[in-house]
Write a structure and sequence with these properties.
Helix 5 runs parallel beside helix 8, helix 8 runs parallel beside helix 11 and helix 14 packs parallel to helix 17. The C terminus is likely disordered. By secondary structure, this protein is mainly alpha-helical. A two-stranded antiparallel ribbon has the order 1-2.
Length: 437
């Protein structure tokens, strides 16, 4: 009753002090209140995420010595088992990565996945065709868990190198992303995978040629049904593709749509999203056709208004874009840098792929219990001999120590526009950054 009365007082506009709430909880619940709560400082999204992730890892983490697996049997079942069994296998394999206890264990798990070509990206084979068949399956559960595994592997540098070895597979993934109806887990994880791979030059070209840019702009034209994850990763992917000359030129006939969408997002409450918007404008306005269109639609007034409501870092970006908008000087639209990749992202602490996951409705074994049925006589994963494979060289690069993401969700991997770019810089410089909601 006392709690109800306090709530009524709060609704009536009368202040309820934290001390009063603390004393009331102590009276009502006695010893069940183990520690005083700080009612004045609500937990941040980051702290809540860390708490939930650590709690999850404690309860379902990978064994200290995970068993070596018979991948020939696993791949055979992925080709022929029931939809639910295949989804459970994909889930269990992903959990081995996302719930690893140490970076060394995670690296060992990833190495076995790549050595055994778990996603069929290393060589053209009947198994590769089976993976494509699963990606395009009419069964939503199977599609979802395969896309989740793609997203998890693309969170890691060596995983991205492995996935990049098969552009044709990534082209299928792009089609799955663009063909999925609604903001589903399948689309979010496919989008996350594609975005993480979008700093690799050959894949950027493939994405542009596959119509991804036009799809992104159509998606952004109706932002209301989009989740925060989808909005963030859509803009980050658009920004990376607009670094390429071919990407900018695709936007020329869609200039009015692109600039309208970007103008609406200039004053978004999420500063990270604003940075992506600024990065896209920075690239697009290097083309005189788009500068002229932006002037005609009043982009200058939008930028000025956004500057007044933005923090200093964003003001610097907006000021440079405003100067660029009113410049008539010829600016090179050629791609910056050499023909190499810009993917130098460090591996994060928390891998993507597990977000918003709903338990598979089945009585079959799952997780490590399921993988135990595929264990080999070799015992521990760390004792399992390496499989000679054409793509083993992908793991020769030095392993990068994971870093903690700076936001509740791992940040999309993008190029970043500098606060005060040099006048000769035609493109944003690249910098390393660090999931699906």
């Amino acid at each position: 009753m006392e709690l109800v009365e306090a709530l009524e007082e709060a609704v009536a506009g009368r202040m309820i002090t934290p001390e009063y709430i603390q004393s009331m909880c102590s009276r009502l619940f006695g010893n069940s209140v183990q520690h005083p709560s700080d009612f004045q400082r609500p937990p941040t999204a980051t702290s809540l995420l860390r708490t939930s992730v650590m709690s999850l890892r404690k309860s379902v983490q990978c064994p200290t010595e995970p068993s070596a697996l018979d991948f020939s049997r696993i791949k055979a079942d992925l080709c022929s088992a029931s939809y639910s069994k295949r989804a459970l296998i994909l889930q269990a394999l992903r959990w081995r990565l996302t719930r690893s206890l140490t970076s060394e264990q995670r690296r060992a798990v990833l190495t076995t996945f790549i050595d055994n070509d778990i996603l069929g990206c290393a060589v053209s084979s009947p198994y590769q065709a089976s993976v494509v068949e699963m990606l395009t399956s009419k069964n939503p559960l199977l599609r979802e868990h395969l896309c989740r595994l793609f997203n998890t592997l693309s969170s890691l540098l060596c995983g991205r190198s492995y996935l990049s070895s098969c552009p044709a597979m990534l082209q299928v993934l792009c089609r799955v992303m663009m063909g999925e109806e609604g903001d589903t887990p399948t689309r979010r994880n496919a989008l996350g995978s594609v975005q993480k791979l979008s700093l690799r030059r050959p894949l950027q070209v493939m994405m542009v040629e596959s119509g991804v840019l036009g799809w992104l702009l159509r998606l952004l034209a109706d932002q209301e049904p989009l989740s925060e994850y989808t909005l963030r990763y859509t803009l980050a992917l658009l920004m990376n593709l607009c670094l390429r000359t071919a990407g900018k030129k695709v936007c020329v006939p869609l200039g009015s749509v692109a600039l309208k969408v970007l103008g609406e997002l200039l004053e978004h409450e999420d500063q990270e999203i604003c940075s992506y918007v600024n990065g896209i404008l920075y690239s697009l306005l290097s083309l005189p056709e788009l500068r002229e269109e932006a002037r005609t639609m009043g982009m200058g007034d939008m930028l000025t208004s956004a500057m007044q409501a933005s923090p200093p870092e964003l003001q610097s970006q907006l000021n440079y874009i405003l100067v660029q908008l009113h410049s008539d000087a010829h600016q090179s639209s050629e791609d910056s840098g050499d023909d190499g990749d810009d993917d130098e992202e460090e591996d994060p602490d928390v891998l993507e792929g597990d977000e918003d996951e709903v338990a598979i409705d089945t009585t079959e074994a799952s997780g490590e219990v399921l993988l135990a049925s595929y264990a080999t006589s070799e015992g521990s994963l760390f004792q399992q001999p390496r499989t000679a494979a054409p793509h083993t060289k992908l793991l020769e690069a030095p392993y990068v120590r994971p870093v903690t993401p700076q936001t509740a969700n791992s940040r999309p991997q993008t190029a970043n526009i500098p606060a005060l770019p040099a006048t000769e810089a035609a493109e944003p410089t690249q910098r390393p950054l660090s999931t699906a909601s």
